[in-house]
Structure formats: C-alpha cells, structure tokens
Write a structure and sequence with these properties.
Number of helices: 11
Strand order of the largest sheet: 1-2
Order of helices and strands: HHHHHEHEHEEHHHH
Number of strands: 4
Strand content: 5-15%
Shape: elongated
Largest sheet: 2 strands, parallel
Helix content: 40-55%
Distance between the termini: 33 Å
Radius of gyration: 18 Å
Length: about 170
C-alpha cells in the first residue's frame, strides 16, 4: 500500500476495485475489513474514490491492501491521516496476526513499530544505520539521538506514555 493510496482509487468506483482485483474470498475479507474500520461497504459501494473523504479513502485502501490475495504486504505510512481510533484498530489487527502473509511496515510512527514489529531496520538519509530488535534500538543511545527517538521519547512521555513494556530496557 503506497503512502498516498487514495490517488490510486480516485477514478474508480469501490465496487469496481473489488470486482477487478479480488476473488470471492478476498472480496469478503475486504468488506469485513471495511466494516472493522467503521465504513460500511453498502455506504461506499457505488461511490467513486473522488466522492469519498480522505479518511474514507485511506480506510478503503487499507482494507484493499490487507485483504488482497498475496504472499506479503508492504504498508508505507499506514497510519498517516487516520484517527487515533482507527490507528488503534489497525494496530490490533496487525498484532493479532491477520494472516500468514509477510508484513513490511514503513513508518515514522515509532509507537506503532514498537507494538507491531519484532525486527527493525532504521534508515537515516537513505542509509541503513541499524538492524535489530525494538529493545536493541532503544538501548542504542547515539542512534536514538541521531534518528530522533530521544525527542520522540520526551514527547511521548509528556503526552501519553507508550507503556512500560516499551521502555523497560532503557
């Protein structure tokens, strides 16, 4: 799923997307995921992408990507533009192990990464600067400063804590 998935959906009706790209099983999964994200299929079925709000388009794109019949999913900034409630639902879905598909998650949302991923690859200016686990990246103080995790920690702790399970190792 690209970072701006709504651009791919603007000229199509939602039912066309389902008909063109999904088999019976993935169509059913798509409809269930839309419902899970709070967007009834019946309310958007006949709508063109340009008739939907940005939030609705992002939900359609997420449901489409997660239900598509394939071996792996790449999600690029999947929480961008979503409400906190929908972000939590996506997190719950991803941590529940939605399927046996491989998952690659590209995000600046460290809270999501910390809760969903087991292994990380951290890039800085297009170069790999770290590979390892969440616990290891949290222990890497120079890396934390370099890629902004120190600032993230300060902001997170002052606004709403991530939970002790994320920061036990620091």
């Amino acid at each position: 799923m690209p970072q701006q998935p709504e651009e791919l959906l603007l000229g199509l009706k939602i039912e066309e997307i389902v008909r063109r790209f999904h088999d019976d099983k993935s169509s059913s999964d798509f409809i269930q995921l839309l419902e899970y994200f709070g967007l009834p299929y019946a309310s958007v079925r006949a709508a063109y992408g340009y008739e939907l709000s940005t939030g609705q388009l992002r939900k359609v794109a997420l449901a489409f990507g997660l239900s598509y019949s394939c071996d792996g999913i790449i999600l690029d900034e999947p929480t961008q533009g979503l409400s906190a409630q929908i972000c939590r639902r996506l997190e719950q879905l991803l941590t529940a192990g939605i399927s046996d598909k491989a998952l690659v998650l590209i995000s600046h949302d460290f809270r999501l990464l910390a809760r969903v991923c087991t292994d990380l690859i951290v890039f800085d200016e297009g170069r790999v600067v770290f590979t390892g686990t969440i616990g290891q990246v949290l222990l890497a103080a120079p890396l934390n400063d370099r890629v902004g995790l120190t600032k993230f920690r300060l902001l997170s702790e002052s606004m709403s804590p991530l939970g002790s399970e994320v920061y036990e190792s620091s």
